[in-house]
Amino acid sequence: MEVFYYLVFGFLAAVVAGLELSKNNKDRINTSQPFNSFKNSYLLVYSLMMAGDWLQGPYVYFLYSQYGFSKGEIGQLFIAGFGSSMLFGTIVGSLADKQGRRRACVTYCITYILSCITKHSPQYKVLMLGRVLGGIATSLLFSAFESWLVAEHFKRGFDQQWLSLTFSKAIFLGNGLVAIVAGLFGNFLVDSMNLGPVAPFDAAACFLAIGMAVILSSWTENYGDPSENKDLLTQFKGAAVAIASDEKIALLGAIQSLFEGSMYTFVFLWTPALSPNEEEIPHGFIFATFMLASMLGSSIASRLMAHSSPKVESYMQIVFVVSAASLLLPIVTTFLVPAANVKGGSISFSGCIQLLGFCTFEACVGIFWPSIMKMRSQYIPEEARSTIMNFFRIPLNIFVCIVLYNVNAFPITVMFGMCSIFLFVASILQRRLLVIADKPKSEDWNAMKERDAEAEPLNVA
Fold first, then answer.
1. Confidence band (pLDDT; 50, 70, 90) for 26?
2. In angstroms, rounded to a whole number, what is the distance separating the alpha carbons of residues 294 and 287?
3. Buried b (16+ CB within 10 A) or exposed e, 354-371
4. What is the pLDDT of residue 274?
5. Is 319 strand, coil or helix?
């Protein structure tokens, strides 16, 4: 492995360690012992859930290829996963508001464990069922846990600012440290232990089962708006009206879809971008480097959110502009750096420049997650939090399905250019959100609820 990879990894590790060790009282949020116990309990569960997710990621494509499926068939399986998340996942995720967030978190564990079990079968239909179950689980992972946390946080009377501490720590651990350890552990199971590509899925099921046991034994149930006897269609209608009537919620949804859509597209593009001539690159080590960059971003976010200034809505404008610029590097290097015509070999000079840009983008991802979580906790009404959050994922999943279907139809520079444009648009929308951020939240939602209540006929026994 080239020295360049070690230098990048070592530099990021040193910066992350320096940031964490140099925190002083001004960079920390003073909290209470009950909150720390609550936070640590949630972080334990969230880390186990993310371990179950990260263990699977690097080996899904490899497992399908080992079963003898073609690139087109594998693409169909991936599309099925995102399509399931858009259709079935939205419905199941929205039920969390009515049936309970704790129950939805348990459903995530069960659904994902079943998805892992299907990986033992080489049958296409069984694997397709696993992708459908995985899509449902993904929607629950990115809505039910956050909804439970926010509701439980306020139910216990904790300060709103303390939420940012939990969010930043969750991303630092779950999307950073746990991802790195999971990648190394999966590599140990497959390569060192020679257990085969299905072993990480079995390990993931074990972590999910442990997390489910912790949830069942220590979490209490909370709901969105159980007092209103609404069916699912009415819930969807109410959430849609809330998004349409509150510009802040609509902007937040658009920003999230634009950024996450670009992020998931990047996941498919970074490998061909760094090895256009089949250069030999250490995929696992580069993945670990990206996760370390994400840890750096979450560490920066924790410092930013510990202070009242700058506001999240303000600094996120800069984050989106920086992320847009970082994904322009593949286009810039195409025109400015001479292309190598030799097949194979080590990473090119152009690839080195792009890798630094991609690490910058991953740092922006690390800032994005806790920051968007904090904004969602401020602007999305508690009554339909899970439902609205799953609404946000509908355009995201449509976009990713389109990208997957046409991934070979456009040059890679066009795809990166499209992502960069999306991120720049997100910065513009973020600017608009900053302008209207001080408007009272949820006033339109509450007014809508009152109108609905007045319109419902009285039930006289």
1. low
2. 11
3. bbebbbbbbbbbbbbbbb
4. 86
5. helix
Distance set, CA 368 to CA 55, 122, 322 (Å)? 22, 38, 12
- Dihedral sign (CA 387, 380, 38, 48): positive
pTM of the predicted structure, to 2 decimals: 0.80
Angstrom distance (rounded) from CA 258 to CA 223: 29
422 and 258 Cβ atoms separated by less than 8 Å: yes
If you write DSSP's letter for every residue of 32-88 in order, what string do you get? Answer: -HHHHHHHHHHHHHHHHHHHHHHTTGGGHHHHHHHTT--HHHHHHHHHHHHHHHHTH
Give tens-digit pLDDT for 404-423.
777 667 788 888 999 999 99
Per-residue pLDDT, averaged over 161-190, amounts to 88
Q: What is the DSSP string of 248-288?
A: HHHHHHHHHHHHHHHHHHHHHHHHHHH-TT-----HHHHHH
First to last CA, the chain: 77
Distance CA 17, CA 34 (A): 28
Residue 348 clears pLDDT 60, i.e. is over it: yes
What b/e string do you get for 216-233 counting C-beta neighbours within 10 Å, with b at 16 or more? eeebeebbbbeeeebeee
219 Cβ partners below 8 Å, 6+ apart? Answer: 45, 102, 105, 148, 152
Provide the greatest CA pair distance for the chain: 83
Q: What is the pLDDT of residues 85-118, one digit of tens each?
A: 888 767 776 777 778 899 999 999 999 999 999 9
- Which helix or strand (DSSP H or E) is residue 140 part of? helix 124-141
DSSP 24: -
